[in-house]
Specification:
The protein is of the alpha+beta class. It has two domains: 111 residues, 2-Layer Sandwich (Herpes Virus-1), CATH 3.30.40; 143 residues, Enolase-like, domain 1 (2-Layer Sandwich). It contains four helices and twelve strands, in the order E-H-E-E-H-E-E-E-E-E-E-H-E-E-H-E. The strands form five sheets. A four-stranded antiparallel sheet has the order 9-6-5-12, with helices on one face. Helix 3 runs parallel beside helix 4. It is globular, with a radius of gyration of 21 Å. The N and C termini lie far apart (44 Å). 33% of the residues are buried. The structure holds zinc ion (2 copies). One zinc ion binds next to strand 3. It is an enzyme of class 2 (transferase).
Length: 269
């Protein structure tokens, strides 16, 4: 059976949360080492809270394939030889007990800072419609255009929001992406973001002092169809920067299937 050899990086660096918000999307390795099956742990014990900001919840089961050299590695938490190894997606391995305890306090890998779990937000219920349309985004003249329309329904703030019970107005926003491979994958990642309630939040507009409005939640969208406008194209850095913003919310290409149908409507409650 093929063993996956992972590099052990024993740097003791704790990155700050800002730079480390990447989801660990645990995948079952095809080459699970049978002898280690009984040593598998899942990531547990992460308490759900309701603070109104993005939250990290329990991740799916992580499987371990560890080579014999790795078993003699030192756990950077307890500084002893690793026992009951548990491997995070980043490849870092710790004693199961050590990492479980660590994750109870800080939900990221102690060695490299990757977030261990899925981040979800407090986006109110709504609908996301994706269409492949005529026309193009300036700067991507050879590609057609993807339009994404979000509709967030009017409602009352829930316990997760700043003023529970307070009424908020619904909104409809349309955003655009070039219909090329990168644009399509970003669209698929935005769909994951929408399902995880990360695209919008309820906040206040500092500039106008208005409270309890539906606002974008730090994933920048191109909402202006007209060229050379503040929120439009061209913008050669946009596709990379929004990919980065999605990554900070824990969403990467690992979370999507590039052959998934693009057009369609999804709802989120
Ligand atoms: Zn340990
Ligand atoms: Zn790591």
């Amino acid at each position: 059976m093929k063993q996956e050899i992972v590099e052990i990086n024993s740097k003791l660096t704790w990155l700050d949360t800002e730079s480390s918000f990447t989801e660990l999307n645990f995948k079952r390795s095809s080459g699970i080492h049978k002898l280690l099956n009984d040593r598998m742990f899942d990531i547990g014990g992460l308490e759900e809270s309701c603070s109104g900001s993005d939250e990290i919840s329990e991740g799916p089961l992580s499987s371990i394939t560890v080579s014999s050299e790795e078993l003699n590695e030192q756990c950077i938490i307890c500084m002893k030889v690793i026992c009951n190894p548990k491997k995070l997606k980043c490849g870092h391995i710790f004693c199961g007990e050590c990492i479980n305890q660590s994750l109870r306090f800080k939900q990221w890998c102690p060695a490299c800072g990757l977030v261990c779990g899925k981040i979800t937000g407090d986006q109110p219920p709504g609908k996301m419609t994706v269409k492949q349309t005529q026309g193009f985004c300036t700067g991507y003249e050879r590609d057609a255009k993807i339009s994404i329309t979000y509709e967030i329904f009017e409602g009352r703030q829930s316990e997760c929001h700043p003023c529970p019970g307070k009424l908020y107005k619904g909104i409809i926003k349309t955003a655009y992406l070039p219909d090329n491979e990168q644009g399509r994958n970003i669209c698929r990642m935005l769909r994951v973001a929408f399902e995880r309630k990360l695209v919008f939040t309820i906040g206040n507009y500092r500039t106008t002092g208005q409270e309890g409005l539906i606002t974008w939640n730090a994933i920048y969208h191109k909402t202006d169809n007209r060229p050379y406008t503040k929120f439009g194209y061209p913008d050669p850095t946009y596709l990379d920067s929004v990919t980065d913003e999605l990554k900070r919310k824990g969403i990467t290409l690992d979370d999507i299937n590039p052959s998934d149908k693009l057009e369609g409507i999804i709802t989120s409650d």
